[in-house]
Design goal:
The structure is a homodimer. Chain A is an alpha/beta fold and about 425 residues long. Chain A is built from 15 helices and 16 strands. The termini of chain A are far apart. At the A-B interface, α10, α15, β13 and β16 of A face α10, α15, β13 and β16 of B.
Chain lengths: ~425, ~425
């Protein structure tokens, strides 16, 4: 039996135990995991240093290296997340709804764990901890297949989690790390339909496309975020400036950062020169439509391609639109249905934007950067779903559960 | 452009219109559809007669022919379902939950349509009407790919629905029938990821397996129902008899019929001879374990294969188990996680069975035959999901929706 199949089997067996474990035990284990991660910070940092050294030797630089690197602050953030997850209400066992049918039978929908969740991800080791903690809370086992560049960090983190589970009377097998990091192992994982109930790929378009083409396990996609901010003719322009700067500059390398700025024609002459200067001062490269370039001379021309692009960098496409109709149409046509914002003081514009923009998260007078499980109060996130099936937007513990119908009666038979 | 791609494109365009159509218009159209189907019953029956004639000529017999055949009663059931769907509350726009974050932004989850739903199904023409009505209610467009043997019936039904939509100011393109009924067209539909948000295959294991292997569109499986009734040592045996007879005999060819009967050892000697006689009198072929055959001489021996089998026929596997532990283990091992029932007067047994049987629908003192969208009060059903992602068990209008986050604030930016 291959490593992948063996670990998926172990996870499935552990999942059936976790499914009937009460929240007392699960929360105790989560708090113990947070403590153990803190206590063994040096073990984690040593493993991470080996990953960083290997990455540097193989020529990895920039954003990837930054995402891979752990430090005291990042570990503290992880353990804070784990403690928040422990403090959430257990989703398992919740009665979602219930009613009595005319024949007297009671129909109730009860929230239950999904079972085994597979995650394929790239360099960020914090995903290992977030995913393990969220899955444990929701009574699921998890099979983690991280990138080869983070393998030592991931094994150290998962090792601490597994030891703590065992020490707290829970199955260590509930958290599995696939050590074979080649493509064949990933492909095998995508087809473990007998053991895995749901696969969450987090990474670039290439990875997601491979999963969509090859997976037989049901998938929840975590695709790109081509996010927009639309500055309406009725916008508070001072507020719009702050939201635009925050959405573009505060952390440009993440999926909820703004990639295209849309500005209503009515306020473009007043707003664009000012905001473009602030953006350029912050090091942002601008690519504008014809009208933008008339108002802000010297910036690059945006091509059709730019409207579709998630830069994940200090680059911004800028377009002047005739008003809310064109803004909504542009977002629904070129966007990735992830997170989009309007800045407006107009009630009707806010209402139309909320209703008609077909995105997982629609923001009114709020920065797109809040599209995040932690910011939504979920403690951490399994990812941000860009598909419509099962879960949409930031996924926390509730989004990694399913339900069962429990129907009780006194001898009902069907006529 | 192929027929499949053209119709999927049309459906997507119609879906964006339906998504913002209020319930007044949708319900009016549904009631008009029910009336039109009644008024044009003869057109439907004539088309169905052509299908039946072709089916008979090509040697189709038995259950398939029965499922294909329409009559006045079946059409009346369809229109009754459509009227019930019209009377349901519109799921679109429902606030699922909402709360305020510490920074003052309001996070609300709002139910919205899925978009375009694809359905691949076999001979039953009533699926055409049920699916179109449920999709319309939930603001979705639907692309229907039925079996070649029902093509005339499906075209007649869909034609009436499309004409009625158009006459009521709604896009006829919201209901599409794929007329090319070869395998290539089905495969093409499974890969229309650019247009279809969700694919529901309804049919035999071969069809489902083909979809799982080939689809890039997210799938909700509607697989087999290997359903159990467990007669506990604390069962009311008179009630158990009625539930067992109902679950096996009332309609044996459907997915929620019982396929294996489990009887606790403590009551086997009293219960089994009696129920087996009643079952055999009703024409049921029994296949028993060793202990069953000692109590009821002359019946066939059940093999390991029998415990896994969905007969969809007047055949029943029977096993004596030591008690609730073995019953739960048997169901979770051999069952298809569809619908399983316990008959018991014991509180603790009812509670354990409800919690530990890992099935979409768990019944206590109720026949498994109630595992059905109509019986659960959903008006009709899109199918019964046997997977855990997105929807589990009978799928009605709510199960063909998704949600979006609408976040409102007054200038919140992320620190």
């Amino acid at each position: 039996m291959s490593e992948v199949e063996r670990k998926c089997r172990e996870a499935k067996s552990a999942a059936s135990k976790l499914a009937v474990t009460g929240s007392g035990l699960k929360d105790k284990a989560l708090l113990a995991i947070a403590e153990a991660l803190e206590r063994q910070e040096q073990v984690i940092l040593d493993a991470n240093a080996r990953d960083l050294k290997a990455a540097e030797e193989s020529g990895i630089r920039g954003a990837v290296l930054k995402r891979l690197a752990l430090d005291h602050k990042k570990i503290a953030q992880m353990t804070e997340g784990v403690r928040q997850i422990a403090s959430l209400r257990d989703p398992v066992g919740e009665t979602i709804d219930g009613y009595i049918r005319p024949n007297g039978m009671e129909v109730r929908r009860i929230r239950v764990p999904l079972g085994v969740i597979g995650i394929i991800y790239e360099s960020r080791p914090n995903v290992t901890v977030d995913a393990a903690a969220l899955c444990l809370k929701a009574g699921n086992a998890v099979v983690l297949r991280g990138g080869s560049e983070a393998i030592n960090s991931n094994l150290a983190l998962a090792g601490i989690i597994r030891d703590t589970l065992a020490a707290n009377g829970l199955p260590a097998e509930a958290v599995q790390i696939i050590e074979t990091t080649d493509r064949a192992a990933a492909l095998e994982l995508m087809r473990m339909k007998a053991y895995i109930d749901c696969l969450i790929p987090r990474g670039g378009k290439g990875l997601i496309q491979t999963v969509i083409e090859n997976a037989t396990v049901p998938v929840i996609e975590h695709l790109d975020g081509n996010c927009h901010v639309y500055v309406d003719d009725a916008a508070d322009l001072a507020m719009a400036e702050e939201i635009v700067m925050n959405a573009k500059v505060q952390n440009p390398g993440v999926c909820n950062a703004m990639e295209t700025l849309l500005v209503s024609e009515a306020v473009a002459a007043e707003f664009l020169p000012k905001i473009c200067k602030r953006l350029m001062d912050a090091g942002v490269e601008l690519r504008g439509c014809e009208k933008t370039r008339q108002l802000v001379p010297g910036i690059k021309e945006a091509t059709e391609e730019d409207w579709f692009t998630e830069y994940l960098d200090l680059i911004l496409a800028v377009k002047v639109v005739s008003g809310i109709d064109e803004a909504i149409q542009h977002i629904n046509t070129y966007g990735s249905h992830h997170s989009d914002a309007i800045v407006t003081k107009d009630y009707s514009a806010a209402r139309r934007f909320s209703n008609e923009v077909d995105s997982a998260c629609v923001f009114v007078n709020v920065s797109t950067r809040f599209s995040d499980g932690y910011e939504f109060g979920k403690g951490a996130e399994m990812g941000i779903s860009t598909q419509k099936l099962h879960a949409r937007g930031p996924m926390g513990v509730e989004e990694i559960t399913t339900y069962k119908y429990v129907v009780t009666g006194n001898g009902q038979i069907r006529q």
